[in-house]
From TrEMBL:
<keyword id="KW-0812">Transmembrane</keyword>
<feature type="transmembrane region" description="Helical">
    <location>
        <begin position="47"/>
        <end position="64"/>
    </location>
</feature>
<dbReference type="GO" id="GO:0016301">
    <property type="term" value="F:kinase activity"/>
</dbReference>
<keyword id="KW-0808">Transferase</keyword>
<feature type="transmembrane region" description="Helical">
    <location>
        <begin position="18"/>
        <end position="38"/>
    </location>
</feature>
<dbReference type="InterPro" id="IPR036890">
    <property type="entry name" value="HATPase_C_sf"/>
</dbReference>
<keyword id="KW-0418">Kinase</keyword>
<keyword id="KW-0408">Iron</keyword>
<dbReference type="InterPro" id="IPR017205">
    <property type="entry name" value="Sig_transdc_His_kinase_ChrS"/>
</dbReference>
<dbReference type="InterPro" id="IPR003594">
    <property type="entry name" value="HATPase_dom"/>
</dbReference>
<dbReference type="Pfam" id="PF02518">
    <property type="entry name" value="HATPase_c"/>
</dbReference>
<keyword id="KW-0472">Membrane</keyword>
<keyword id="KW-0004">4Fe-4S</keyword>
<feature type="transmembrane region" description="Helical">
    <location>
        <begin position="141"/>
        <end position="161"/>
    </location>
</feature>
<keyword id="KW-0963">Cytoplasm</keyword>
<protein>
    <recommendedName>
        <fullName>Oxygen sensor histidine kinase NreB</fullName>
        <ecNumber>2.7.13.3</ecNumber>
    </recommendedName>
</protein>
<keyword id="KW-0902">Two-component regulatory system</keyword>
Length: 400
């Protein structure tokens, strides 16, 4: 990830490189102007000299301006460039003293073209164009060169150290940005894990509370009803009522235990959804005395407890609505296992209703529970045409 500061740093570096690449042209143009004004030579000589100067300009443009990436990546190519630069500069200095104005640019270009310690050798070699001029063997000139060379090396070294520091700071900033991004990712992951742990702990607490209260109470009710049933003569209306209450308590106990399993962390291990829905249909049929058929299609498979409980609650809610409102003569319940979805269909031939006017709490809660699993609930009905409730829930398989 590139930050704004890093982009600005790269932009400044690009501008500095362009300035270093174009700076020698100013000295070359100045030297050519002085040469044309001061050297009393013929037109042909001037044209040849200017042609050599143009060749030097093109040579520098190709290596230093057109391909600035070569400065750091192609050391041998830039070494050849620097040798050619000194050769062309020496030829120009021999043809006109005015071109000595261009020689200081060779000191700078030594650090531009050559990496590491070879740059300092380049600074020493940059004196060649001056040394080829007649009369440079005098002690005063040699002293000047001996002073200018270390000074140029010192300035170049300082500039190069500043460039290295700028690059180092940019790399450090990039690392800090990467570390900050990683820390933010880890913090978000930690918050998510803490939230999941809190949810799991609360679900486990609710499971314990339900087990210790409701489940234990229903167990006691079943045991007492069984004891009462043994004291009541059979057959008889009282015995039938006691048996119905006992069966209802047992069914409620099974549902409470299933809810406890759903609240506990981890998936269920067996595919018991079909049996649970079949039991719910059978219980509803006995309670309401209405024919109700249950069909399973596809291959049953183990799914997560959330999916089992959601589909079971959907079947119970749909059947409860049929019993309360539909006045149906027949109900058909179908549980379909598809490749990546489980579909529950509950159809009745009752009085029906206007779908837009349905807004009971049970149906609203069912929609919320199904949507929490990225599922869908479709209700089709019309007055006098019965009702069809379809629930589709994605398959969430148990972990192997």
């Amino acid at each position: 990830m590139t930050t704004v500061d890093e982009q600005l740093g790269r932009s400044r570096e690009h501008r500095w490189n362009l300035a270093w690449g174009l700076a020698p042209y100013g000295l070359l143009v100045l030297a050519c102007a002085v040469y044309l004004v001061s050297d009393p030579v013929g037109l042909d000589e001037r044209l040849v000299t200017l042609g050599i100067a143009a060749g030097l300009a093109g040579w520098h443009w190709w290596f230093a301006v057109a391909h600035p990436r070569w400065w750091d990546r192609r050391s041998w190519a830039m070494a050849g460039y620097f040798v050619g630069l000194l050769a062309l500069t020496s030829v120009l200095v021999l043809r006109g003293d005015a071109f000595q104005l261009f020689v200081p640019a060779c000191y700078v270009l030594a650090f531009v073209a050559l990496p590491g310690w070879p740059a300092y050798l380049g600074v020493v070699a940059a004196n060649v164009p001056w040394l080829v001029v007649p009369g440079t063997a005098s002690p005063s000139v040699l002293i000047n060169l001996a002073v200018a060379t270390p000074l140029a090396a010192l300035v170049g070294g300082v500039v190069r150290a500043m460039e290295r520091e700028a690059v180092r700071r940019r790399e450090v900033n990039s690392e800090l940005v990467a570390v900050a991004a990683e820390n933010a990712r880890l913090h978000a992951l930690l918050v998510a894990r803490a939230r999941e742990a809190g949810i799991a702990e609360e679900r486990a607490r609710l499971a314990r509370e339900i087990h210790d209260t409701v489940a234990q109470g229903l167990t006691g009710i079943v045991m007492r009803l069984e004891a009462v049933g043994e004291l009541v003569p059979d057959p008889g209306p009282v015995r039938a009522g006691v048996d119905a209450a006992r069966d209802l308590a047992r069914t409620s106990l099974v549902e409470v235990r299933r809810s406890i399993e759903a609240l506990r962390p981890g998936p269920l291990q067996d595919a018991r959804l079909g049996d649970a829905v079949r039991q719910a249909v059978a219980t509803w049929r006995e309670q309401h005395g209405v024919p109700a058929a249950f069909t399973v299609t596809g291959t049953p498979q183990p799914v997560h407890s959330e999916v089992e409980v959601t589909v079971l609650r959907a079947a119970q809610e749909a059947l409860a609505n049929v019993g309360r409102h539909a006045r149906a003569r027949r109900v058909d319940v179908t549980l379909s296992y598809m490749e990546d979805v489980i579909v529950l269909d509950v159809r009745d031939d009752g009085v029906g209703f206007e779908v837009g006017s349905a807004g009971g709490f049970g149906l609203t809660a069912l929609r919320q529970r199904v949507r929490a699993l990225s599922g869908s609930v479709d209700v089709e009905s019309a007055p006098g045409a019965g009702t069809a409730v379809g629930v589709a829930v994605p398959v969430i398989e148990v972990e192997r």
